[in-house]
Design a protein that fits this description.
The complex is a heterodimer of chains A (616) and B (340). Chain A has 616 residues and is of the alpha/beta class. In chain A, the strands form five sheets. A seven-stranded mixed beta sheet of chain A has the order 11-10-12-13-15-14-21, sandwiched between helices. In chain A, strands 3-4-2-5-6-7 form a six-stranded mixed beta sheet, sandwiched between helices. Chain A is globular and about 85 Å long. Chain B is of the alpha/beta class. Chain B has a domain of 213 residues: Rossmann fold (3-Layer(aba) Sandwich), CATH 3.40.50. Chain B is 30% helix and 19% strand. In chain B, a hairpin with a 5-residue loop joins β9 and β10. Chain B starts with 27 loop residues before the first helix and ends with a strand. Classes of the chains: A alpha/beta (616), B alpha/beta (340). Chains A and B meet through α1, β9, α9, α11 and α12 of A and β1, β2, α2, α4 and α11 of B.
């Protein structure tokens, strides 16, 4: 049985921002994911913002236990999940209370009225029932008895009421699917496939979904449904993708492009674990995944695999980078290719494990003892994680250096449509290994390429090229242990120069300047979309603003100094206390100002726009 | 791998041009010689050997072996070696470290490499002292040891390294000492031949900071009474005339007895291949510190799937099941849509 097509003519909408909010046990992430997937396949542009607590099951019904998923879908190109939702789906009082302040005035609240009993109101800290006391008069409130209608829809199926109640998120999904004229077949097929081996759960979820959809069509809560037409995106084949998935695919692609087996060694840590999960599924690509006993072992294994000729990667989040830092210094000294993925989260210490932040930039830049320079590549959007991973691998392999690949919690879990690249358009990362002696009849492991300063890479097992490398200072060329003062100074400079020269090999920073701007917004990492959105809004208000975004944080693009000096005012939005602005001030002596946010949540465009207005 | 019998090797084929910088008289010299002689004897191709070490006096070992080598960071050699083994299961991977490197800062990596049964040969030089940092007590130093960092005596209870390895269910565990080249070579040969992780505790004299630590048991004139040679399939006995032996008491603990008192039939017969490590553990408890009769030789040698081989089997099975990886198909997996 497929729900009948609505008889009401839908009204077109350009975009909508919906936030699904409920208890951590209510399945809001799954509901949001489903809605997103269907909208992506429908052809909308979209961006998502999942937000959930670190606890697996925080106390039910409390504010601390609220989990939410925000998605913006549109019929045009969009850059962010939206500043403020216009529709809030609240499955209980706590979800309403935790999110109501962010709902746009005049927005729609769709509540599961069954959950608004005294017990849940108390847990959420409500003195009076907000559905009755008039406090929501600025919004359009739609009360739906989702729990009881779900129970009613499933009672014939033999599902225990307690289990049936768990299907109420599918009721909500059905209702919202009707409201925004989403095709139902993909969700039905998905439920069939996902719960195929749990017949009762499958039928209950299906019944709840259809009940929700049909309820929308018949209950006359709205005059008509809405429709967001497919966006006109550049031609091509698309899929929806999260940052962690894109990073994983990028690493597999880098293995393919370099013709090297990938070894990914990691210790489980939020929000990076999904990369380990994903890569462990693709052994037919020759990908070795290793779940280590700790963070240090993970990078140790990666270094060993790099020595033996693999494309070696270790992935973690900030606390893991702290632990790996000594071994990262070893990799700098060994001059072996290695990618270190840091999916940044709120810190310091355990901090906010499930929330986003960009506060590891200076750690990436300087977080090792001694002079230990390391290239840094940062992804800008969820799908850009694919390209960033390939770029990090390219630099690592070409320059025989560890490279830090920075993403963050927002990119990791956020999703957007991704236009699939043509494999032939991806860069060639082929590596040449040493095959014969390079100094008379000797092999010198530190005899450098005069152009890149990279050292040769000789694989164990190759006759005649036996060599020893280590963390002790070594003589340039031979690689022999060497404590000579001048040799050490030479090696420190060589290692720095090698990284500095990468600037010749990366694209110049591009500036989006419609002309006449005297303020430059300079961003890095996941602030790209929201900064661009803010710049567009400021321009719409007649402001002249330029925008530039950095993918390479070390070395900086060669033209960055020139670009910065061309603008009297530079504004750096970042989710830390001003780490990039500190770097560019130190490097280029420009008076860059910061706009910062450290709430574990991405910027809203309006926040950056306000900073632009203030500075202009 | 001794894969080429046509070529013969001598000790010098494994010597590097680097000056050996251990203190004169250090036990490490005799260990280095034993390893090089053993390699020549087996005929191991230098390019197929990889030595990985951490930090400490022992950890300089790779610089003196004309093979592939990484001198890594303190304690992490078993992890680095695991990476080499996963990437190149065809090579022989050796880990060299001291008691501080392996049991203090690197204790975690040691036990995990052993439990996984990664095919690395871990040789731990135990001198019961920190040498490179000039004489602090180590995790194998005896309680009460007076050192620079313990002027009133160390309060720590030492590890028994063989017990630790057996506790981690290592598939090969042995002990030897630097005063007996033949025993060293034989023990290291057994470690080399073992498929999977091998742990060898090697008593090594630090003549500068802990001279004579093992003299009570390793001196030529006392060995017969102080070293209990473990021989597979034979009753465990020692002493110049084999007059002493080992029995298992009613609590499952090993005890030293006079053979004349209990009769030969009561003696424990050593079995390296017992699947359960409990008996080997009981034997390892005979000597708490190496000043009393101490078992040496192979405690345990059992077969279990080797980690990096299991990795290869999973890779092959995945390719068999799903075909070789197709990047284009992977990128386009899940639901896709086309914009014209």
């Amino acid at each position: 049985m497929t729900p009948e097509t609505s008889t009401l003519k839908p009204e077109p909408l350009a975009e909508v921002v919906i936030r699904f909010a409920g208890d951590s046990g209510d399945g809001m992430q799954l509901t949001g994911d489903r809605f997103t997937d269907v909208s992506a396949a429908f052809g909308n542009d979209l961006a998502t913002l999942p937000n959930y607590p670190a606890e697996i099951r925080a106390p039910a019904g409390t504010i601390a236990g609220v989990s939410s998923f925000q998605v913006q879908i549109s019929d045009h190109d969009i850059l962010t999940p939206g500043d403020l939702p216009t529709v809030l789906v609240a499955m209980n009082p706590a979800a309403l209370r935790a999110n109501i302040d962010e709902l746009a005035k005049g927005g729609t609240i769709l509540v599961n009225s069954d959950a608004f009993d005294q017990r849940n109101l108390d847990k959420a800290g409500y003195q009076a029932n907000p559905l009755e006391d008039g406090s929501l008069s600025a919004y359009r409130v739609i009360q739906v008895s989702m729990t009881s209608m779900t129970l009613e829809a499933t009672k014939e199926l033999g599902v225990k009421p307690r289990d049936a109640e768990r299907s109420k998120n599918f009721f909500a999904l059905g209702l919202i699917s009707w409201l925004y004229t989403r095709p139902v077949e993909p969700t039905i097929a998905w439920i069939d496939q996902r719960f195929g081996n749990k017949e009762l759960v499958r039928t209950a979820n299906l019944a709840a979904f259809k009940a929700g959809y049909n309820f929308g069509d018949t209950a006359e809560l709205w005059e008509h449904p809405y429709e967001i037409a497919p966006a006109s995106l550049p031609p091509g084949q698309y899929r929806q993708i999260t940052g962690n998935l894109a990073t994983s695919l990028g690493l597999i692609a880098a293995g393919h492009l370099s013709k090297l087996p990938v070894t990914y060694a990691s210790y489980p840590i939020t929000p990076a674990s999904d990369v380990l999960h994903e890569l462990s599924r693709h052994k037919n690509f020759g990908v070795r995944t290793f779940q280590a006993e700790d963070e240090i072992a993970a990078i140790g294994v990666a270094i060993g695999a790099a020595f033996a000729g693999h494309l070696a990667v270790t992935g973690t989040s900030g606390p893991g980078v702290d632990l790996k830092s000594e071994a990262m210094g070893l990799a700098v000294s060994l001059e072996l290719p290695l990618v270190i993925l840091d999916v940044q989260r709120g810190g310091p210490s355990t901090g906010l494990p499930t929330k986003t932040e960009q506060a590891d930039l200076l750690l990436a830049m300087y977080g090792r003892h001694g002079e230990a320079p390391m290239p840094i590549v940062a992804a800008s959007t969820p799908s850009d994680c694919f390209d960033a991973a390939i770029e990090a691998a390219r630099i690592a392999l070409k320059y025989r250096t560890p490279v830090l690949l920075l993403t963050d919690g927002y990119l990791a879990n956020g999703a957007e449509p991704w236009r699939l690249p043509a494999i032939d358009d991806l860069p060639d990362l082929t590596v040449e290994f040493a095959t014969k002696p390079n100094h008379g009849d000797e092999y010198w492991p530190y005899l450098r390429d005069p152009e890149t300063l990279a050292r040769p890479w000789a694989l164990p097992g190759t006759p005649g090229l036996m060599h020893r490398i280590g963390g002790i200072e070594k003589q340039d060329g031979t690689g022999n242990v060497n404590y000579d003062p001048h040799n050490h100074e030479k090696m420190v400079h060589l290692r720095a120069e090698k990284i500095a020269r990468i600037a010749r090999d990366i694209p110049p920073v591009e500036v989006d300047d419609p002309g006449g701007a005297d303020l430059l917004v300079l961003g890095w990492g996941s602030t790209w979309g929201v900064a661009q959105q803010a710049v567009r809004q400021a321009r719409a208000n007649g402001r002249r603003v330029a925008h530039a975004h950095l993918v390479h944080l070390n070395p900086f693009p060669a033209n960055l100094g020139e670009v910065l000096r061309a603008y009297p005012k530079v504004l750096v939005p970042e989710m830390n206390l001003g780490q990039l602005s500190r770097l560019v001030r130190a490097e280029y002596l420009v008076d860059a100002k910061s706009v910062t946010k450290v709430q574990g949540l991405p910027f809203r465009a309006a926040e950056i726009e306000a900073a632009i207005e203030e500075m202009i | 791998m001794a894969d080429d019998t046509a070529v013969t090797f001598s000790r010098k084929d494994y010597q590097t041009d680097q000056e050996v910088r251990w203190c004169p008289g250090c036990g490490d010299y005799s260990i280095l010689a034993a390893v090089q002689l053993l390699f020549a004897e087996i005929g191991l191709r230098p390019e197929n050997q990889v030595f990985v070490s951490g930090i400490g006096c022992a950890a300089r070992f790779p610089y003196y072996m004309e093979t592939y080598g990484i001198h890594s960071i303190h304690g992490r050699a078993p992890a680095v070696a695991t990476g080499v083994a996963i990437a190149r299961p065809d090579l022989d991977v050796w880990v060299i470290g001291g008691d501080g490197d392996m049991l203090s800062i690197g204790g975690n990596h040691l036990i995990h490499a052993l439990r996984r049964n990664v095919g690395v040969k871990i040789v731990m030089f135990n001198n019961q002292i920190y040498g490179l940092t000039k004489g602090q007590f180590s995790p194998t130093s005896e309680t009460g040891k007076i050192t620079k960092s313990s002027p009133f005596g160390s309060l720590d209870t030492p590890f028994n390294p063989v017990s630790v390895a057996l506790g981690a269910e290592a598939t090969f565990v042995a002990r030897t000492h630097d005063m007996d080249r033949k025993h060293m070579m034989e023990t290291l040969r057994r470690a080399y031949e073992h498929e999977g992780a091998a742990f060898v505790e090697l008593y090594q004299n630090c003549n500068v900071f802990n001279d004579g630590a093992f003299e009570t048991i390793t001196a030529k004139d006392t060995r017969a009474d102080m070293l209990i040679d473990l021989v597979h399939g034979a009753p465990i006995r020692f002493g110049a005339d084999g007059e002493k032996g080992v029995i298992l008491n009613e609590f499952g603990e090993c005890e030293i007895v006079a053979v004349a008192d209990v009769g030969e039939d009561r003696l424990l017969v050593h079995d390296e291949h017992r699947a359960d490590p409990s008996l080997a553990f009981a034997i390892s408890r005979l000597a708490h510190v190496p000043t009393m009769p101490t078992p040496v030789g192979v405690f345990r040698d059992v077969a279990r799937p080797v980690y990096e081989e299991a990795v290869q089997i999973q890779l092959a099975a995945a390719s068999e099941r799903n075909g070789p990886g197709d990047l284009g198909a992977l990128l386009a997996s899940g639901s896709t849509w086309t914009v014209d």
